[in-house]
Specification:
Oligomer: single chain
Structural class: alpha+beta
Distance between the termini: 40 Å
Shape: elongated
Largest sheet: 7 strands, antiparallel
Mean pLDDT: 95
Radius of gyration: 19 Å
Number of strands: 16
Order of helices and strands: EEEEEEEEEHEEHEEEEE
Length: 236
């Protein structure tokens, strides 16, 4: 099946796009209708980040998933005739939802990068919940250091640093330092906050750190062999 062009990969602030329906079907396991497009502005769930929601023409999209390289846009509406193959559509995402997730995710990267550089600990778990974010690290952090980590993270916000997001060429990748939970085959998408973090990530991020807003660390508890930190960013 034809690969969908991922417009969000190169522009996380793009909210609208024109596309053509390649295929639509009923997914019995989801009890929903799935649409495949030639291009999309909708981000599918992945990398700890929830999927975008929004509209395809006047059809509500409630979930987007990437399966075996194919992006499926899900709706409860029967669109088998309405959005048949070859139909031109306008896609619009819920920007407030997208931007909130970008704030949380970019803030998490900064905190994880600071902890990795200061203590050598790795982020081994990341959950972006509706009420808070939790990050799990594989080592202990003195409780008294939490305020300093928060201060350093907010310094990165105040400096309004441009993020650098790209996919290095195969010959370039071995020379790019980055955090990762496991060895990854090329292609590897790198998200950098210069001076603070460099990480392999498929998620969406702000263009400049000032967009994140306040980074607040609420708590830290022992978790397995390390700690779990609870935090929130931006409007939350």
């Amino acid at each position: 099946m034809q690969t969908t062009l991922k417009l969000y990969d190169t522009d996380s602030h793009l909210t609208v796009c024109e596309a053509t329906v390649l295929h639509c079907e009923y997914d019995k396991s989801r009890q929903a209708y799935a649409v495949i497009l030639d291009r999309t502005v909708f981000f599918p769930e992945g990398g700890g980040q929830f999927a975008d929601t929004g509209y395809m023409n006047d059809t509500e999209i409630f979930d987007v998933q990437l399966k075996d390289g194919v992006i499926f846009h899900y709706t409860k509406e029967n669109i088998l005739d309405k959005l048949a193959s070859g139909t031109a559509v306008t896609c619009r995402i819920d920007w407030n939802r997208r931007f909130d997730f970008m704030q949380q995710h970019s803030g998490e990267h900064i905190v994880s990068g600071i902890i990795n550089s200061r203590y050598g600990h790795h982020n081994v778990g990341f959950h972006m919940g509706w009420d808070s974010i939790t990050i799990d690290f594989d080592g202990m952090i003195p409780a008294g250091d939490l305020a300093e980590i928060e201060r350093l993270a907010n310094d990165a916000v105040y400096r309004n640093i441009p993020t650098h997001i790209w996919t290095p060429e195969p010959e370039e990748l071995p020379n790019v330092p980055y955090r990762t939970k496991r060895e990854l085959p090329w292609p590897v998408r790198i998200v950098q906050v210069p001076g603070y973090d460099s990480c392999a990530c498929c998620g969406l991020h702000v263009a400049r750190t000032g967009e994140i807003g306040l980074i607040k660390l609420f708590s830290m508890v022992k978790f397995r062999s390390g700690v779990r930190i609870e935090m929130l960013c931006g409007k939350r």
